[in-house]
């Protein structure tokens, strides 16, 4: 911990929440993690994924045939009949091929496209030619310029989908020089028994057919985690070790890559993974509205092959695709289980999800089944990424045809491709339908959100409610990888909305993270604690409750013992609200609040917290132990009361350790600090709970709102000492004046401390989380916010910062 001078700080604009009681009192052995255990992003664990109950289609390798497009004679041709190009444009290259069998086609070239370049195509099926169609030259789609994927890609057009065609003609028009390396690529996607299973009457017109269903491909109910069963709420003495699979926004039925027959060997590189999305962009693929349900999978394979083999992209460009019957397909690999960077909206790929409808909707609108499917997949992805599809967002362009690099634009969270680039996509007839899709997705998202009641706080004498080492409140066994324990603390009122607990882990067999959330709510990847072998680690958390006042704790890897101590709860009858208050009240190194000298075993230190108003029931203390002489633990409790058998800090020799504790106050505003080993203790008040006044706490389903490793909620890259990371926290209501955030630090280059505070205010002289190289450390932070914005600073070196929102404070 960085030493700070004693000072008083102005009241926070109401922020707070915390916890008391920490870990299992086991003496903590000093140790370090060899790598970060912080969960990589807001991805639900292997999961409640609803997929269509279709057989896996055998891998089908499409055949890509490439033809050079020769120049016309000296470029002397006249403008093409029906061309929308200016009269100065001429047909400079043209080719025709018949006797083929193909499903998808497109044109590529090298170098930059002339500003007036136009590519037209017509296809033949059973000796009948279509009319000429303009193919969008594609700087709008594709990887971001300058990205590794963008640097290896080849310029070209969008793919034209024309299942079962046997002829194609292409002409290229420009008033400038002919682009170099013009090539026509045609893709025969092949067939498989899985495609034939969908043959027959199209579900769009089949009597009684459910939207999105097709013969041979039935929708399946949401799948459950293997081995998981629903459980009833339990008391603190009998805990379940199985997880509920109730969804927030259920995943819709999705035809997976394996089911549409993706040949993964076609991928020349692996797409980048993100922490989440901020918005969704709707596209169309153009052409071929006449394809049958049996041909849809072959179109997926054809687009995949064109994007990877001809354009040089890592994968199919879109995260998801929807056929004209309303069936949803997994696009980019990993889009179901995680968040994958697409190549679908150049300049904005890092922030947006791409959903494309297979077909041309220039003159015909999306069918109702398509609109419903797009809204469902957007609502589900918005839930996983913690944004409201009905709201707006400010994005920064990395360079698109509409917005130059660095330009900040505010857009609806669900938009058409033309809102970000100079393109007609998703078609003139479909674009007016985007507001309706946005509204439907927003309604579905809101219906699935967990938001608890806003209530005030009641502190209790800290007590242990779970200890897997002894079998208290749970089975006497380490919690296995992917395992969970659901607990309902006894003695809670029926209308409890949230609890404050301190979670301690010990005996971990490998690097792991632990998440805590309301029971019965689908978990996201938020974590409140990171640990590893040889470490005993504690972190406070304030979390909403599920049915019966229950919460669920989950372990991500290896096996680990869990200890949980209860500090208090929020309910309708609770009378104490949070009041902003920020000041250092104890530093045994300097004599602040007590004589100079370390807290010694068997010699508890009682301090008086100055300036507490009448009616103060509890204080939020950010406790830091430093210059520790031996392993042990620290417990904070009300002055004049018996010491509880709980702990708040687990001591590590040679390392500063911090944690937030919500401590009841004794007579005269006193708090007692007990330590089992000699250590210096620093205590900072970050808020107080006062009867009859103060802010209420609204719990939400824990969700990731900040991750500097992925540029999520803040600029991409580690936080460097001397600079300030400003986080824009999506999803906070405008009325929120404070929040409870589980803050994690990882990848530190030097021992450092993080300080969190409301943007636009002075940086307080405390540390919230202390971290050393080779470890991932988490801790609860209660901070004020201004305009949903938060600032974080680091004392030294550089470090990555991750934040998971547990709830917010307001009137």
TrEMBL record:
**Could you confirm whether the keyword DNA-binding appears in this record?**
no
User: What protein name does the entry list?
Assistant: Peptidoglycan recognition protein family domain-containing protein
Q: Which GO terms describe its biological process?
A: peptidoglycan catabolic process
Q: Which InterPro entries match?
A: Amidase/PGRP_sf, Amidase_domain, PGRP, PGRP_domain_met/bac
| Record carries keyword Signal | yes
Cite the GO molecular-function annotations of the record.
Answer: N-acetylmuramoyl-L-alanine amidase activity; zinc ion binding
| Region called Disordered, residue ranges | 134-158, 197-248
Keywords in alphabetical order: Signal
Q: Where are the transmembrane segments?
A: none
Q: Superkingdom, according to UniProt?
A: Bacteria
The similarity annotation says: Belongs to the N-acetylmuramoyl-L-alanine amidase 2 family.
Where, if anywhere, are coiled coils annotated?
none
Organism listed in the record: Terrabacter aerolatus
- The UniProt record lists the Peptidoglycan recognition protein family domain at 252-400
Signal peptide stretch = 1-29
Q: Which residues form the N-acetylmuramoyl-L-alanine amidase domain?
A: 267-427
């Amino acid at each position: 911990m960085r030493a700070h001078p004693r000072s008083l700080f102005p009241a926070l604009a109401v922020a707070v929440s915390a916890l008391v009681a920490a870990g299992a009192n086991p003496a903590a052995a000093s140790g370090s993690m060899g790598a970060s255990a912080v969960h990589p992003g807001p991805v639900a664990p292997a999961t409640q994924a609803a997929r269509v109950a279709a057989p896996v289609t055998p891998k089908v390798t499409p055949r890509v045939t490439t033809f050079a497009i020769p120049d016309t004679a000296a470029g002397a041709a006249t403008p093409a009949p029906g061309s929308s190009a200016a009269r100065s444009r001429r047909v400079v290259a043209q080719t025709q091929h018949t006797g083929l069998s193909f499903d998808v086609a497109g044109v590529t070239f090298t170098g930059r496209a002339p500003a007036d370049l136009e590519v037209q195509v017509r296809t033949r099926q059973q000796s009948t030619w279509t009319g000429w169609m303009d193919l969008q030259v594609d700087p709008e789609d594709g990887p971001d310029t300058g990205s590794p994927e963008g640097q290896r890609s080849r310029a070209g057009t969008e793919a034209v989908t024309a299942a079962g065609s046997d002829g194609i003609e292409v002409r290229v028009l420009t008033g400038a020089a002919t682009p170099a390396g013009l090539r026509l690529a045609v893709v025969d996607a092949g067939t498989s028994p899985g495609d034939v299973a969908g043959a027959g009457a199209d579900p769009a017109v089949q009597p009684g057919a459910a939207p999105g269903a097709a013969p041979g491909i039935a929708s399946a109910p949401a799948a459950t985690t293997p081995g998981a069963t629903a459980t009833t709420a339990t008391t603190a003495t009998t805990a379940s070790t199985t997880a509920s699979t109730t969804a927030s926004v259920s995943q819709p039925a999705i035809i997976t890559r394996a089911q549409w027959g993706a040949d993964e060997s076609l991928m020349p590189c692996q797409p980048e993974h993100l922490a989440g999305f901020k918005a969704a962009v709707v596209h169309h693929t153009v052409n071929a509205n006449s394809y049958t349900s049996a041909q849809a999978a072959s179109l997926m394979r054809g687009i995949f092959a064109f994007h990877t083999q001809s354009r040089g992209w890592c994968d199919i460009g879109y995260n998801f695709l929807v056929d004209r019957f309303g069936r949803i397909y997994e696009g980019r690999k990993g889009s179901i289980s995680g968040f994958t960077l697409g190549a679908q909206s150049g300049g904005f790929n890092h922030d947006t999800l791409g959903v494309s409808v297979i077909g041309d909707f220039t003159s015909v609108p999306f069918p109702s089944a398509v609109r419903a499917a797009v809204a469902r997949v957007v609502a589900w992805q918005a839930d996983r990424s913690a944004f409201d599809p009905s709201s707006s967002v400010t994005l920064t362009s990395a360079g698109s045809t509409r917005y130059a690099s660095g330009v900040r634009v505010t857009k609806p969270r669900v938009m058409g491709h033309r809102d970000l680039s100079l393109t007609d996509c998703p078609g003139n007839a479909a674009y007016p339908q985007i507001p309706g899709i946005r509204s439907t997705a927003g309604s579905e998202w809101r219906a699935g959100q967990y938001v608890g009641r806003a209530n005030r706080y009641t502190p209790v004498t800290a007590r242990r409610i779970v200890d897997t080492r002894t079998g208290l409140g749970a089975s006497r066994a380490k919690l296995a990888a992917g395992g969970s324990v659901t607990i309902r603390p006894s003695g809670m009122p029926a209308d409890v909305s949230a609890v404050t607990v301190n979670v301690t882990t010990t005996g971990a067999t490998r690097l792991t993270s632990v998440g805590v959330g309301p029971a019965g709510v689908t978990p996201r990847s938020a974590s409140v604690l990171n640990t590893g072998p040889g470490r005993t680690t504690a972190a406070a958390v304030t979390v909403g409750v599920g049915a019966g006042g229950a919460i669920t704790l989950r372990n991500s890897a290896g096996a680990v013992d869990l200890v949980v101590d209860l500090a208090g709860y929020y309910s309708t009858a609770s009378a104490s609200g949070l009041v902003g208050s920020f000041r250092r009240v104890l530093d045994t190194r300097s004599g602040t609040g007590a004589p100079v000298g370390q807290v010694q075993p068997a010699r508890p230190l009682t301090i008086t917290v100055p300036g507490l108003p009448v009616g103060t029931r509890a204080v939020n203390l950010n406790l830091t132990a430093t210059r520790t002489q031996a392993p042990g633990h620290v417990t904070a409790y009300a002055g004049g009361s018996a010491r509880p058998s709980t702990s708040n800090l687990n001591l590590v020799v040679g390392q500063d350790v911090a944690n937030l504790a919500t401590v009841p106050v004794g007579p005269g505003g006193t708090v007692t600090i007990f330590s089992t080993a000699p250590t210096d203790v620093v205590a900072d008040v970050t808020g107080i709970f006062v009867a009859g006044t103060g802010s209420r706490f609204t719990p939400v389903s824990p969700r990731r709102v900040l991750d500097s490793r992925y540029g999520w909620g803040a600029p991409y890259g580690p936080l460097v000492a001397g600079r300030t990371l400003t986080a824009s926290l999506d999803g906070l209501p405008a009325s929120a004046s404070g929040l409870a955030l589980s803050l994690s630090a990882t990848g530190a280059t030097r021992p450092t401390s993080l300080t969190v505070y409301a943007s636009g205010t002075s940086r307080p002289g405390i540390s919230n989380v202390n971290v050393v190289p080779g470890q991932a450390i988490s801790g609860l932070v209660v901070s004020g916010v201004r305009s949903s914005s938060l600032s974080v600073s680091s004392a030294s070196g550089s470090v990555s910062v991750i934040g998971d929102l547990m709830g917010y404070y307001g009137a």
